[in-house]
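subagent[fold] <- orchestrator: predict structure for attached chain, return tokens only, no commentary.
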Amino acid sequence: MINIYQRLFYFLVINLLVLHYAIAQDTSQVKKKIKKAVKIEEPRKLLLHKMNPDNFNFGFEIDGNFNLIGSQLGNYVGKSQPRISIFFTKPIYKYYVNSFISLWDYAIEPLALNIVSCRENTIDNQYGGYYFDPSFALHLIPDRSSSDLRIILGVRPSYLLYSYSEILENGVYRLSQSGLSANKNKVGDIDVSGMLGISVKFSKIGYFDLKYVHSFTNKNTTDYVQGRPSLIEFGIRLSAVQIGKVLFDLDAEIQKKVTKFSKGTLLVMLPTPNQNEVNALQNAGRTNEIRELFYQQELTNKMVAEKFTKDYKFSKVLFFSDSSANKIINKNFNDVFVNENMNTIPTPETFDSSNYFVASFCEDVSEFANRFTYGLHVYDVKMQALPSPFNAIKNDMGLFPGGDIVAYMRKKKALYSIGEYERVIRKFNDRLVRKKMEVLEEN
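subagent[fold] -> orchestrator:
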């Protein structure tokens, strides 16, 4: 009987141990918390071209001020000094509420530095100071449809950052280290002024401002200067928003040109020897030099034609002689195209006479030359230089063939190598292809 109880006891103990071990080594699947995918937001870009300057505008202002202390006290002469600031403007209420409230913007200049100075004309001492010069103003816009004219009303508190006095010694003004008793302005002085002015838009990106700044803390006398005097300010206010829009429009125009010309044809002009130079050599009886001149030009044209045919892939390419330049300008394409040997070829059926641009290794022949060095110059149909990326400093061939000035001085007709032409043409092609890819990615 005892054996039965012992066996039962052992059985229960063993089961308890097994159960305990099973619980400790639980192999059941644990449901993991499934984290929801977090949407990674790209950093917000400040897209100036999408902003409306009538709803929010910012930029910087550069002014000149004229100290009016001389109009108050005859023994002082005011001086002109600069002022620079950052501004923000925004309508008081951007939606139409009534005809009066909708005419007003508020304008803040949170960061501004102003220099104010004058000269005491009897003893030739100069006094001045650097001011932290923020302003808070209201702009009255009589015609909301244009915003070309603004009337400015505001207040300008000033904090004196640095005060100085200068004395005249041996015809030169020298900073007075100990200061002068006549200058009672001290660092930390606060002045308050009112503003009244007018702002006129002179271009897409800026306004011309004229302001009268009346000081309420002017304590200047004939014996000493204290407090900031009244000023007349004039300057320009440039809008970062409008500058962004102008730059975007310029880039958009270039993108249109790149897209259009990639489907068109580049007409490469191959120069011929200068006839005046040929006539001069002929009159001097230097026939060998004439032959050398024609040979070098023929060799150069073959190198240019070979490298354009091989390395230029941005658009189709055709060649013509500079003697046919007037026909190209007048869009007469009969018998103008040539091969690398300058032999006339028929006009290809695939040539689109409404979509082409012109390039040549030469010195700039456009009316308004941007580069005067020898290199690849690119033009529109009116032979006016195209902007970047068509024309760039990397289109230049360098001042001397091979960069060897000694060889150039010994033989002025030294040729550029085929490798130098290849380098310029490849970079030109790659630049246009990259710009085209940027356009495709944006679209």
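orchestrator: received. Logging for downstream: The two ends are 93 Å apart (CA to CA). Residues 65 and 81 are 5 Å apart (CA to CA).
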